[in-house]
């Protein structure tokens, strides 16, 4: 272990960066979080925010059975850690209210869902198939109609991502972390004692430097031989004004996905799981509300508050990219499209690896060497 309290600089105040800040500060590290804007202003703010057990992952269609199962288990581990943090910190806006996935009968989507359900069951998810009547009994606000292939996963959930990121940052600051907003990272250099990081506010020393900048990571690590390859992808989410509590579960229907967050706001999207990589265009929000009201009648008179269209953080092969170099000990970049589900788990594993100076085996499938085996740890 590192004997003295290390100095840690984290670039990026999204859900990954703030969770890392909390975990490092909890281990006694002296943490500073830099962000060129404000907390949760990047991809976190435009997230659908489903905490998922899925076995088919966006832009990772070539992932084999073993790789998909490993990634599935990483999600499951992270869900347990979110539950721990929810208890340890308090006030995290997470609701473990289950998820329905449904498709029209005899459609390609129904066949895909059947295959998804089979994998989930074999790999240990408590998912199970339900009838439309059973679905309404579990979630009275849900009217699946002709979407007769339905399965339910009781231990999935959702979060209010911006509020959760703010709460994680507050918890990190309570443990001694420092937050420096409007403070753009500019570069770093290796020194005899560690690293010197330069940002808009000046220079600071660090023993550990982590890039958690989401879509900015490729630019942040440019010139360092660290890897953060991304595929261009955008995602559109329609945010509705706060409503009385209409439904609890995550609803993933054939034509619309919907979540009602802890603050009463409902977010809806055309599709926010699996493939394709991006949305072809921004949806007509009023039309999407009408479509959503077919399966969630309580949304009939809902008011659109805003539409967000954000760049998704989609690594080149769909999987998280954990990038480090033997020549730069203590420097790491983490890039993932599944920060909502994985931030808690990845943060714990990365904190352990960097503070205890060990190689955490669970991170091995996601290391950047897969893009260029000649670069990485020796």
TrEMBL record:
Keyword check for Ribonucleoprotein: no
Source organism superkingdom: Bacteria
UniProt domain FAD dependent oxidoreductase: residue ranges: 7-351
Pfam assignment, any one: DAO
Cellular component annotations (GO), alphabetically ordered: cytoplasm; plasma membrane
GO terms, molecular function: oxidoreductase activity; potassium ion transmembrane transporter activity
Keywords per UniProt: Oxidoreductase
InterPro entries xref list: FAD-dep_OxRdtase, FAD/NAD-bd_sf, K_uptake_TrkA
PANTHER family, alphabetized: GLYCINE OXIDASE, SARCOSINE DEHYDROGENASE-RELATED
Name under which the protein is recorded: FAD dependent oxidoreductase
Species of the source: Caballeronia calidae
